[in-house]
Amino acid sequence: MLNVAENYIQQQAVLHFTNNYCLKRHEPRLLIYSIPNESEDAWETQKKKNIGLLPGASDTVVCLPQGVSLYMECKTQIGVQSPKQKEFQDRIEALGFKYYIFRSVKQFYTILNPYLTQLGLEAYNG
Q1: Are 23 and 121 contacting, i.e. CB atoms less than 8 angstroms apart?
Q2: From the DSSP assignment, how many helices (H) and strands (E) are in the chain?
Q3: Fewer CB within 10 A of the end CB, N or C, for the chain?
Q4: Residue 104: DSSP 8-state
Q5: pTM of the model
């Protein structure tokens, strides 16, 4: 589960990315979404597992044209992956997808800027 600092970093990254690349007026219109993969309540968690919740799944997925999906995990400067997160990363990478850990909004865009530039979109330099 995201702690307060991770939650803030992810919130800022998702908000900025959405406002700059995901609105109806954007072409191409990109997609970013989060995967709420844990709950405080054990009963709620079990119900979610029954319908596909996967502990360890990345916090965020960024979908780009031509079938490119980037799985992105938010951590603080000192945060570490859980064993389930490492297992998820291994499975994603074995399937040929990209998995990244970002620790700030700036690092989020350091990862994404090459993809954005390749699409002919303006890179974020904040």
Answers
A1: no
A2: 4, 4
A3: C
A4: S
A5: 0.89
Dist CA 89 CA 72 (whole Å) = 10
Write out the two tokens for 93: 């990478």
Contact between 40 and 33 under an 8 Å Cβ cutoff? The reply is no
List Cα–Cα distances, 26 to 23, 107, 117, 118, 122, in angstroms: 6, 23, 15, 16, 12
DSSP 3-state of 37: coil
Coil, strand or helix: which one is 115? helix
Q: Report d(CA 91, CA 85) in Å as an integer.
A: 10
pLDDT in tens, 29-68: 999 999 877 667 788 878 877 887 888 999 999 999 999 9
DSSP H/E element including 84: helix 83-94
Residue for token pair 């690349």: 21
Distance CA 16, CA 109 (A): 10
3-class DSSP state of 106: helix
